[in-house]
Request: fold
Amino acid sequence: MIRRELSGVFKRALSQSAARRQEHLPTTQSPIVSKLHFFNSVTGNDTQIPTFRVLDGVGKPLEGAKIPEIDEALARRLYENMMLLPTLDNVLYNVQRQGKISFYMTAHGEEATIVGSAAALEMDDEVLGQYREMGVLLWRGFSLDKVMAQCFGNEEDTSGKGRQMPVHFGSPEHHFHTISSPLATQIPQAAGVAYALRRTPSRRSRSIAACFFGEGAASEGDFHAGLMLASTIPSPALFIARNNGFAISTPSTEQYYGDGIASRGPGYGIDTVRVDGNDILAVIAAVREARKRCLEQGRAVLVEAMTYRVGHHSTSDDSFAYRARAEVEDRKRIDNPITRFQLFMESRGWWDADSEAELKARLKADVMKAFKRAESLKRCEVGELFTDVYGGQEPWNIREQREELSGLLKKYGTIWEPWRNELAKFKNKGQDLVNPK
Amino acid sequence: MHILKSPSSLNAARTLASLNASTTHRRFNSTLEPVPAGGHLPSIATSKILRTTRETALRTPGLTWSDEDASAPSRTIVGGRETRKMNTYQAIRDAMSIALAKDENAVVFGEDVAFGGVFRCTMGLAEEFGRERVFNTPLTEQGIAGFGIGMALMGHTAIAEIQFADYIYPAFDQLVNEAAKIRYRSGGTYNVGGLTIRTPTMSVGHGGLYHSQSPEGFFMGASGLKIVIPRSPIQAKGLLLGSIRDPNPVIFMEPKILYRSAVEQVPVDDFELPLGQAETLVAGSDLTLLTWGTPVYHCEAAMHLLTSPPPELESVVPASLRSAKIELIDLRSILPWDVETITESVKRTGRLVIVHEAGLTAGVGAEISAEVQKRCFLKLNAPVKRVAGWDTPVALQYEKFHIPDAIRILDALVETLAY
Reply:
């Protein structure tokens, strides 16, 4: 009798608390529903993530658009850098065709994405790029001589002493981490760089790590790893995806099935935006805001910049093997990032045909001067083949192998023509190894 | 895939233990305990190689004190210095504690390190130094390695843990293409010397294919990296502190079966042991026996069997060989490895046996053999013999016949001495 009554009270208490618990499972805010429903949209209404722009295709501000704060001086600086980039690209592309450098990658079509992002960052934000972000270095004052030195791999190459292929720039002074060929490896590294900034009192809440990569590289596991870490640990890393439509010959339709790279951001719980990468003012606005959120939250933020790779992937690629010339010519005309901003500047009275002519001539002269100078320089000393493998004491195997090559150079360096010709290209012609002091 | 990575990290250590517990008849023998997850090697308890007294511990060869006060009269005075009984995981934790205490830019991270780690190597560190300096990462080895590289690029001291060496391969690209090459490719303007990757390695008795591997050979060709493998608590503490402070990225591989089995009196002060240097444990004149990690103790056992074979082995150990003096060397650093010590030894003894758990083909023993035969060709009285794991994955039930043990090493000694 008593047992039945107690159990009735007990059962009522149980069912009351069960009713309260029915809204969600124990450790989550996910609401409970009893209608089976699959979803497949990040925006929640089955549309694609919208693309932010402020200027139309001919540089006119859109209705209701808020133009970011820029003055004439900044506008000119932006434009100059957007013009310097293709000036360099054209010269160095042809220089490769002439066989004077081994390789080159242009950034045609992506000038607004790169220069706009650079301008929205602080000069000492740590940048980890992929390989098409020389524009960031130019914005930060990396000299034309250093650009040429790296591409020619000559004795002035501070990026890497001639060890890497062209466009693999690096400069601690400009907070630009040395480029490496493997794709996406910089993405989890950016999460770590950002954590170090978080742990450095003088830079915490002041500096971020900005990480660039293409939509193709974003398919790598390192993309997932990097965003997972920067969103979860968390660390203030800003991820900027240059969606330029191609990974060599692979169009983005064959790279992913979802809504671009931006759709992945909410998967990591991070603030995300998609922007017209050919509208430099939109890029500046978006990256400025993204940077602000990145710092405030101390967490990853994702920007997807939609653009178009006008040039070939590299000098090793002929993109007309996989796309129509007409398509490229169209994209050069429509939404051209440089033209749009030029028209905007003209509409503000900040630019005219004379300025254009003067700028083009000056940039071309500067670039040619640096090129001619770099062309005549020698490579580093051949002994640099063996330095910098390790820090601290040099291991025996490196030392012995250097001695072995020294012996071989002594033996064959003058009598064997291929070696003699090759040695002539090095500073001191190999004497640093043959006759060490 | 990772059977130890169950939802509750506390279960991780228990899972392997419970796998073993089912095979022990606890009802009939209450003194039997489940084998610890990290394994157990009872023969180590009687090893003469371990330094189990304060006096011998403080005189560990090559030890240098890293006292803060550099103006102290003599850095080699040991009087007044303390030691404490520690096993290998406690010594490793002690090393990290010192690193974190002295280097404000040092952090420790990896899977499950915050609660203490699946092998207890990080016990109490998060409590002492805070969750900003000792923290868990999501489950991604390529992410852990990349994150560590990023921190080290900024000059910070990143002590990253890969939960098992068997799972280091997703990080291979980051370690070989990036960490090993950053200093070289940047012309010395960037480096990741502040990176240390710690990882449990080698067999444990019941680990099967994916908890027993010795991957040091895969990294030996990645010039720019260093690889270190300690054999005992004192070695682990000193070599780990040396690795953390070395200006190069170091992969520090900790034989997991030694975490509990190897116990020494470990100096409590800050000290380092040198990288790139082997240690001669037993001087000899007739044969050089070279190894690293867990097999050090199997080699020791084999040497005893050679000197005084038990009755059942007397027929296979010729009496004339029982007085052979074997020189036992612990390599300690795989990259760069101490070619000078090995060469000097083999030139004296004329015979070399190399022992390692990793598979024979293209293992570290292959590289050492090639170099030794080049330098000692005319002094060799027998071919260089390698005793290694077979060229198969490490199979669970077959492990006793896969991993080199005292009998296989003894057999190799007899064969090489009698050549």
Observations:
- Residues 1-29 of chain B have pLDDT under 50 and may be disordered.
- The two ends of chain B are 46 Å apart (CA to CA).
